[in-house]
Structure formats: structure tokens, C-alpha cells
Amino acid sequence: MRLAAVTVAGAALFLWPFTGLGGPGLAAAAAVSSGCVLALLAVETMSRRLDSRGLALIAAIAAVDSALRLALVSGIGGFSPIFLLVLCAGYAMGAEFGFVCGATALLVSALVTAGVGPWLPYEMIATGWVGAAAGLAGAHRRGRTPQRRDVLLLAVVGVACGFAYGAVMDIWDWTFFRGAADVGYLPGLGAAATASRFGHFYLATSLVYDGFRAAGNALLVLLLGAPVLGALVRLQRRHHLVIEDSPALPGAAPAAQPG
């Protein structure tokens, strides 16, 4: 429910240009993205689903991703190594954790690499969705040790997220191509005509570029996913406390029932 509310708010931000009213202002976009992350972070912390150790893990992942992005700022095509840890963290720790981790890692890495701009609020939400998608895919795992099929499933998620991330980020980029024949954004058009123009824009400008990101995600998960997932799962187990009722001892008298 918490993640669904955040997703609805983020989707409204990305889908706003399809209403024909133009793109939302920078202030509105920044308010929505930061509000989504802070609200989810506050709820997770107050409900004790996210404690100081979880916050420390998010900070560590953000630091590592910042170093990776600093070493490879431009990437290869659309590929960037920062998505590996976001995917693994979401798969191992859950969808809500994955969203907060992805958005935070993107924000911190953007500050380190001077990647702050009007695109940043959109990138934060889109990267958060990558972590959330991995978390939803890993929900069936139920605490067991990651196996080969988990790595393969996460690689498939990485491919899908590679294209999906590029597509939603292109919505922001596309609004600057106003008036270009057949593909440019034109405020005032109906939703169907606007969607058709965006589809042509994406196929013409971004499909191959996003293919590098999708392939890179899958390759990194296949090569490094098993040890990274294993480490995250062990960390989760070490700090996860489960309280269960103790079994009744043989010969013990049954508890008195209220009269």
C-alpha cells in the first residue's frame, strides 16, 4: 500500500505531458520526487521495518554506486554499473527498501558526479522503481538462500528495467523536442496522438541506446549477482529477529482457560 501510493504519485509526474497541459515545472517535479522518498523513508522507519542498520546499508550502497558512477560517468551507451546493487538490494531486502535504496543511490551519485539538473527528480523515481521491481520479483524467495534461478530471474528483471528506465526517462527528455515532425512533443494533443508521437520518438532515438543498459544489467547480474545476493541475504538474516511461541514441554500442565 505504501509503495503503491508512492508509485501513483511518481506515475502522475511522468504521465503529466500526456494530458496535453505541457510538462510539470521543476519545483513540482522536485517536490513530488523528494516527497515520495521522504514519505516512504519516514513510514518505513516509524514502523521499524527500516532501522539504523538498514539506513547504514543504504548509505553504503549509495557510496559504492557514487564511486562507480564517478569512474564511469558517461557509461557505454545507456549502460551504467549503478543498477547492479540497486537490483540486488531490492531483490534481497524487499520492494520498499529497493525503492528508497535506488532513489538515494541516484541522488548521492548525482551530487558526487555533478549530475544535478532538472532531470534529477525523474531519475530518482525511475531508479527507485528499478529497486522496487526487483523487490517484487524476489518476494517469492521467503528468506531462503539465493539459488541459480534467482540470479536468472534477476537478470531478466534487469533487462526489463533497462528498457523501462530508458522509456520513462525519455518522457522528460521528449518534452524538449517540441514541434519536431511526427515525433516532437506538442501540448494540446489528445492522449492517443501524444502517445503515438512518443512511441515514434522512443523507437527512433532510444531503443538501441537502452539496449546497452539492458544487456549490461543482465551481464553484471549473471557475473556478480550470486555473491552480492548471498552477502545481502546473510546480512538480512543476521539482523532479522523473529519471535515465535515456544513449544509446550512434555508433561507440562495445559494453561488454565478463562472461566
UniProtKB/TrEMBL annotation:
Pfam families: ECF_trnsprt (PF12822). This is ECF transporter S component. Keywords: Membrane, Transmembrane, Transmembrane helix. The chain crosses the membrane at residues 84-113, 151-168, 214-233. The keyword Transcription does not apply. One of its GO terms (molecular function) is transmembrane transporter activity. InterPro entries: ECF_trnsprt_substrate-spec.
